[in-house]
Amino acid sequence: MKAGILESDRVFTVSPHYAEELVSGEDRGVELDNIIRSTGITGM
């Protein structure tokens, strides 16, 4: 998954709330938050 995120232009999620959760930090269970944040994320 990390390689796919790094090769993408932007990450899209199913909702704005889920996008916020993904970049909220490791304490929420997402360990790729810093990579996703640097790539960019959009909740649709």
Automatic annotation (TrEMBL):
GO terms under biological process: starch biosynthetic process
A GO term for molecular function: glycosyltransferase activity
Domain Starch synthase catalytic: 1-37
Keywords: Glycosyltransferase, Starch biosynthesis, Transferase
Entry annotated with the keyword Zinc-finger: no
Transmembrane segments: none
InterPro entries linked: Starch_synth_cat_dom (IPR013534)
Keyword Transferase listed: yes
Pathway(s) where this gene product acts: Glycan biosynthesis; starch biosynthesis
Organism domain of life: Eukaryota
Protein name (Swiss-Prot/TrEMBL): Starch synthase catalytic domain-containing protein
Protein source organism: Medicago truncatula (Barrel medic)
Lineage: Eukaryota, Viridiplantae, Streptophyta, Embryophyta, Tracheophyta
